[in-house]
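Why should sequence recovery work at all? Because a backbone constrains its sequence more than one might expect. Tight turns favour small or flexible residues, buried strands favour hydrophobic ones, and helices have their own preferences. The token representation captures these environments compactly. In the example below, the structure is given first.
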């Protein structure tokens, strides 16, 4: 199986953007303490990227970025990475249905998966007697992350030019052209 140079370029670009998303919460952008937690940009990037170009974000690359994100951001190593991998695979297997329905269905899928991930994470933290997020912090974190999703989609679409393939003139599985 020969992989095209464009696919390698897209994988390198995803990796570089992932590293930037991991580094963003660590940047000292202001001198006063934050009232808000930083949004989870690696989740937003991964979901938006997998919907647009699923073959250029392989499982191993997502796992590496997610584990690095857990280690650098001092989260329980592996928990959020496991949830992110699960969410990316759900998106990978349902991206065709989401592509046909538009941006609102895509946003609803991303929001539902993120809220489910937060609930599962808090359940596992509670189960292991670790400190879990409070409800207000969890809602605030979810809102900030989900508000970044349309901006990430616009960034990927208009600046990076990672777009959904156009399937309008191709035959469907029965051979009919829509």
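From this structural description, the recovered sequence reads:
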């Amino acid at each position: 199986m020969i992989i095209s140079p464009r696919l390698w370029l897209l994988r390198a670009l995803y990796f570089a953007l992932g590293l930037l998303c991991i580094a963003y919460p660590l940047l000292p952008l202001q001198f006063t303490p934050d009232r808000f937690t930083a949004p989870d940009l690696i989740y937003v990037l991964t979901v938006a990227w997998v919907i647009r170009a699923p073959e250029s974000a392989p499982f191993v690359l997502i796992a590496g970025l997610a584990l690095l994100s857990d280690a650098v951001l001092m989260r329980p190593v592996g928990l959020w990475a496991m949830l992110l991998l699960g969410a990316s695979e759900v998106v990978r297997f349902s991206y065709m249905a989401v592509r046909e329905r538009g941006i609102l269905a895509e946003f609803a899928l991303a929001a539902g998966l993120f809220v489910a991930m937060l609930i599962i994470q808090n359940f596992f933290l509670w189960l292991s007697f670790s400190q879990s997020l409070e409800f207000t912090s969890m809602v605030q974190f979810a809102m900030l992350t989900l508000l970044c999703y349309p901006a990430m989609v616009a960034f990927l679409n208009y600046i990076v030019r990672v777009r959904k393939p156009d399937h309008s003139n191709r035959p469907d599985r029965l051979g009919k052209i829509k």
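A few observations help interpret the result. The chain is about 65% helix and 0% strand.
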